[in-house]
Design a protein that fits this description.
Strand content: 15-25%
Radius of gyration: 13 Å
Number of strands: 3
Length: about 80
């Protein structure tokens, strides 16, 4: 599968900050280890930064998923970086 990204897509660093609070991978790795969970109760990404869990919504099509992921990350102020 080939995924085309453009300027509208959030960079991987912003996804990392969104779910972990860190803007780079710690030298001794994460504790707890990052994990992914799929959810059906929200259309937007959610995160548990204390547990390093990224909650990924299930969508019927990729375009809607991509749009909602970008929206969620760009519109969540967070609480700062670790």
């Amino acid at each position: 599968m080939h995924v085309i990204t453009d300027e509208k897509d959030v960079p991987l660093e912003e996804i990392l900050v969104f779910f972990s609070g860190c803007d780079s991978i710690p030298a001794l790795s994460f504790s707890p280890k990052p994990s992914l969970e799929f959810i059906a109760h929200s259309r937007f990404l959610l995160a548990n930064t204390c547990e390093n869990i990224l909650l990924i919504p299930v969508h019927a099509d990729y375009a809607t998923f991509r749009s909602d992921v970008n929206f969620a990350i760009r519109n969540s102020p967070g609480f700062g970086r670790a």
